[in-house]
Amino acid sequence: MTRQFQRAVLSLTLLVAIVGASACNSKPKRIEDQPRIEEVARNGDARDAENEATAASYQKGCESGDAESCYRLGILYEDGDGFVKDASKAASLYQRTCEAGNFSGCHALGHLHMIGSGVVKDAGKATALYRKSCDGGNLNGCVNLGLSYEDGLGVAQDLARAKMLYQRACDGGWKQGCTHLGLLYQSGIGVAQDVPRAATYYQGACDGGEPAGCLSLGFLYEAGRGVAQDLPKAAALYEKSCDAKDPRACLALALLCEDGRGVARDVAKAAGLYRIACDGNELDGCHNLALLYQTGNGVAQDKAKATALFHQACVGGLAEDCSP
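-> structure tokens emitted (324 positions)
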């Protein structure tokens, strides 16, 4: 078997755009609302106790009519991170929040309708909620409304309107909008193709802390598209995005580390990065890590682990790893 990597340009939990030698028709993942509840750097009972205390505080605030507390409580129920996961309850809380004029709640409820989690899957209703959120000043709602227009989900496809919404979000400081503009200019969808301009949008997004902007810009520096090829710079951008928990960037960086392209060759480091990518549901990471375990390259040889990783990739949809 050979090593694999499909370059996924965007994220956010949600649809993936693949960029490589040839284009495919899948779209960027939808971006979840931010900021989310901050991660607590503790585990086990201490974290559970803190989440219970946090939930109790939000519950009390929500019952007192504080829409933001209802929204935050909805996030806990939706994520189920150290808390009882209940998407239906999250949807109910988001509905209450939205009706109270908290437009983050409208956006969050729209997301649940788009993916059919805890509510009936309904792209039209999702898009209407994104519009309400965007009209209320929630720029993430504008980005996802733009995606609906770009993809024709719940509305007639309108690339010009999608671009306008991405621009509104980008100009307002919501950097995912800048990344989506970059994708349009890189691919020439709805605009004249202009890869250097795409690079400028990606740079602005990356400078603003948007991991997918760093990742997308890294792809351009690695390939020398729209910018002069610069493998060390690509590696630095992948590392920045990987550190921000984007598993696709970890996969991209792993390939450079394994080959010694733009960085010192370090197969052990590549193995660790493939593991992060695999744990983040990047199936090529599982596949490539399996190859290392199969050959004992950078890790102790372990054919049982290799088989398990190939199986994981197969179950996830990587047909090449589904051997008889």
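The CA atoms of residues 77 and 86 lie 5 Å apart.
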